[in-house]
Design goal:
Blueprint lengths: L3 H6 L9 E3 L6 E4 L5 E9 L6 H18 L3 E11 L5 H17 L3 E9 L4 E10 L15 E4 L5 H9 L5 H12 L3 H10 L3 E4 L4 H13 L2 E5 L9 H6 L5 H9 L4 E3 L5 H7 L8 E5 L4 H11 L5 E7 L6 E4 L1
Parallel strand pairs: 4-5, 9-13, 10-13
Antiparallel strand pairs: 1-2, 2-3, 3-6, 4-6, 7-11, 7-12, 8-11, 9-12
Helix pairs in contact: 2-3, 4-5, 6-11, 9-10
The structure holds cobalt (II) ion (3 copies).
Length: about 325
């Protein structure tokens, strides 16, 4: 059986002078004229909590995040919905209301959408945003000597999986939901104010998987310091009980060709850095002389974290060294 990467690699390679960013980044960027480029993205997934309104908030924040990761401003969005015909319609109403409320907070209008009958509920948005051409921040611009800054703590995959197993305390889940529902808007604004070299948002492939795309795209290496990596409260207790999503384990296997783990790092610490996130923070690669400015802007903007977790290295190209 072919995996998804193999299938996608056989599709025609799309290029065009006005296509400023194509496949392989958080979103595509297309230049309309010298002032305006469009950012296009789509994202949807299955429920991660039992509360339909919260699911709507989180799914919308997650979908909007790919526009923020490019340094853009979301303008318009469409609902993408799969919903079982027999499930209560007011539940779908709650999901959509969550999406509308989150989009409104982002100053983005939801102007339509499409629903299919689906035994497993799914929700997300396709989003159109704008950025000044040339000002878009890609995952391919990281430079040796850059500092890596992360704007949200890790652990949402472990915490929501623990919830499905009845192991996550209510207050821990509450913290994770607030984290996932938070927009990356102020983080993106801070990043654009300072000017940075590269950015990506941390979602399903985890910190290590998304950093791998960054170092490969940028033809550089990286070093991650485990100590300062921010972690959501309650995550460690769950990890010690053996809680981690299947996707997190797969992420860890997938970075085996990329990660060089310091021998002191435990299996749990490695898993945490690979935890599949939902609506995670921005991972920003900023020139060293601007890092203080970026951290103060992020702190002033009230992002959940503004932690320096590593640096970009000359290489070996595509390699991520992880030290305690
Ligand atoms: Co993304
Ligand atoms: Co995405
Ligand atoms: Co239609």
């Amino acid at each position: 059986m072919e995996d998804l990467v193999q299938v996608l690699s056989k599709l025609p390679h799309i290029s065009h002078p006005d296509l400023l960013v194509g496949n392989g980044d958080d979103a595509a960027v297309y230049r309309i004229n010298d002032q305006t480029a469009l950012i296009l993205t789509v994202d949807f997934f299955t429920p991660i909590t039992d509360d339909p309104y919260e699911f709507g908030l989180i799914a919308a924040a997650n979908s909007l995040s790919d526009v923020y990761a490019m340094g853009g401003k979301p303008l318009l969005a469409m609902n993408v919905v799969g919903f079982p015909a027999d499930l209560a319609r007011d539940m779908l109403g709650d999901v959509l209301r969550g999406g509308y409320d989150k989009a409104a907070e982002a100053g983005c209008m939801i102007v339509g959408g499409h629903t299919v009958d689906d035994p497993e509920p799914k929700y997300g948005l396709s989003v159109v945003g704008v950025v000044e051409p040339g000002k878009q921040v890609t995952n391919a611009g990281a430079q040796p000597g850059d500092i890596l800054v992360l704007t949200k703590p890790l652990g949402t995959g472990i915490i929501t999986t623990g919830c499905k197993q009845g192991k996550t305390p209510d207050d821990v889940l509450k913290g994770a939901v607030a984290n996932m529902a938070m927009l990356n808007q102020s983080a993106a604004e801070a990043m654009m104010k300072v000017g940075v070299n590269a950015c990506t948002d941390i979602t399903g492939f985890g910190l290590m998987g998304h950093l791998r795309s960054m170092v490969r795209g940028s033809h550089v290496g990286a070093r991650v310091h485990f100590g300062p990596v921010p972690v959501l409260p309650g995550t460690w207790d769950l990890l010690e009980q053996g809680v981690a999503p299947g996707g997190t384990h797969r992420n860890l296997q997938a970075v085996a060709d990329t990660a060089v783990w310091h021998p002191e790092l435990t299996d749990q610490q490695q898993l945490l850095l690979c935890d599949a996130q939902t609506s995670g923070g921005l991972l920003i690669s900023v020139p060293a002389h601007k890092v203080d400015a970026l951290v103060s802007e992020l702190v002033a903007a009230g992002t959940p974290s503004a932690d320096i977790i590593g640096e970009i290295t000359q290489g070996p190209e595509g390699q991520i060294e992880v030290v305690p």
